[in-house]
Amino acid sequence: MSASLKVIKSAALLLGMQVVQRGLGIISTLILARILTPDDFGIIALITIVLQFFELLAEIGNQQYIVQKEILRDSDLNTAWTMDILIKSLVALAVICSAPLLSAFFETPELALALTIATLALPLRALRTPGMMQAVREIDYRPLFRLTLWQKGLSFIAVITIAWLYQSYWAIVLGSLLSAAVFAIGSYRVHPYRPKWSLENAREQWSFSQWLLLRGIVGFTRSQVDNLIVSKHFSTSALGGYNLVREISLLPALSAIIPMSEPLLASIARVKDDPDSLAYRVRFSLAIMVTVLTPLTTFLMLYPDLIVLTLLGEQWAAYSHLLRPFALFFLTFCLFALISDAIIALGRVRALFTFDLISTAIIIIILLVFATGSLTNMAWIRGGLAIATTIALLVLLNHWTGFSQTKLLFLIIPGALGSTAGTGLMMVMHLGEIQGFWELAIRGCLFIITSALAAICAAILLLKKTEEWHQVRYILKEFRR
C-alpha cells in the first residue's frame, strides 16, 4: 500500500471515529446548553483553564517522541509509559494542594472541590497502554477507533443522565473521570502490548520533550489568555458565554479537521530528509487543510445569530455576535496546529518554542492594552492576532521546507472560488417562513454542496496539470478499489 493511500485510509478511519466521538460531544454540549446556566459554564471554563495548564505541565510529548523515532524499541514504549504515570501523578497532587488558592484567586468557592475531583483524570489517562502510541506511529487507527466508541458512548450517557437529574456542572466533571477510566482500561483490551516499569531511556526522551513542555506552557498561555483576561474583567456569566461560543466555533476543528491531519504529520516525518518530497507533502497537506477550512469559516461568519440561537438556545443570544470573530480563530486554530506539528516533525522544537514565546508576549500585551473594554473587542482583536501569528509561522515553515507559498496560493484558489459561489447563493436565497433548525440545515447543506461543486469545477480547470491534482485522482482511484 502506498504511503499516500495509507494516509488517506487512516484519515478516513479517523473521520469515522471523530464523527461518532465529536458527534456525541456536540449533542452533549447542545443538551447541556439548555439544562445548565451561563454561570455553570463559567465554572466549567475555569476548571478547564486550570486543568489544561496543569495537563501541559504533565505533557512531555511522548506520542510525538514515539512517532518521530526511526527505530522503536520496547524500552522506548516502557519509558514513555512510566514517565507519563509519574509526572501526571505528581501534577495531580499539585492541583489538589493548590485548589483552595486557585478558588480564592478566581473568587469562585465551588472551584476547590471540583478541581480536586476533576484532576484525578490525569493519572487515570496515564495508565493506558503505550501500545496505542505505537499504533499511531504505524498509522493504524483501528484499535483507537474501537476504544473511542466505548469511551464516548458511556461518557455521553453518564453526563446527560447526571445533568438531567441534578442540573449541575458536576455532570461534566464526573463524565470526564468516567471517560478517562474507560480509555485506560479499554486500551488493554484493544491492543496486545503490555508495558513494564522502566526509566531506561528517560534522559533521551526528556532531551526531546523538554522543549515541547516549555512550548506547551507558552501555547496554553497564548490559547487561553483571552479567557483568563475575561475571567478577571467580566462576570462568570460573561466568561461562560464567551467561552461556550468560542468552543462552538472550534467544534469542526476538534471534531474532524485536526484529528484527520495526524496521518499527514506522520507522513511528513518519514520524508524529512528528502527536501523535494518534504516540500511537496507539506504543500499538499496545507492545500487540503485550507480548502476544507475556507467554506466552513465563511459560513460561520455569514450566520452567527442563526447558528448560536439554533444550537444553544435563546439564553445565549447576547453572545451570538462573538461567533463572527471566532470564525477567524477557528480558521487559524486548525492551520496553526498543522504548521506547528509539521515543524515538530522536522525536529525544530526549540525554534518553535522561541516563536511561541515571542508571539505570546506580543498577544498578551496587545490584549491587555486594547481589548479589555468589551467582549466584542476581545474577540475581534484575538481573531486578528491569531491570523497574524499563523501567517508568521507559515513563513518560517516555508523557509525550512521550501514548499513555495506562491504554489500554495495557487492551489487554494478553487476553494476560495467555491466559497464565493456558496456565499452568492446565500445572498439571493430566501426561505420565507422557514426558520430555526430547518433554516440552518437547508442553508448549510446548500452552501456546502454549492461550494464543493464550484471548487471541483475550478480545480479541474486550474489544477489539472499540477502534481497535486494527479495525486488526488490516484488516491481516490485506489481508495475506491
UniProtKB/TrEMBL annotation:
In Swiss-Prot or TrEMBL terms, this protein is called Polysaccharide biosynthesis protein
Task: Give TM segment ranges.
Answer: 12-35, 41-60, 147-166, 172-190, 284-303, 323-346, 353-373, 379-397, 409-428, 440-463
> What family name appears in the similarity comment?
Belongs to the polysaccharide synthase family.
Membrane topology term reads: Multi-pass membrane protein
Q: Where in the cell is it found?
A: Cell membrane
Major subcellular location class: membrane
Q: Which domain of life is it from?
A: Bacteria
Going by the UniProt record, its keywords in alphabetical order are: Cell membrane, Membrane, Transmembrane, Transmembrane helix
PANTHER family documented for this protein: LIPOPOLYSACCHARIDE BIOSYNTHESIS PROTEIN WZXC, PST FAMILY PREDICTED COLANIC ACID TRANSPORTER
Q: What GO cellular component is one of the record's annotations?
A: plasma membrane
Q: Which Pfam families match?
A: Polysacc_synt_3 (PF13440)
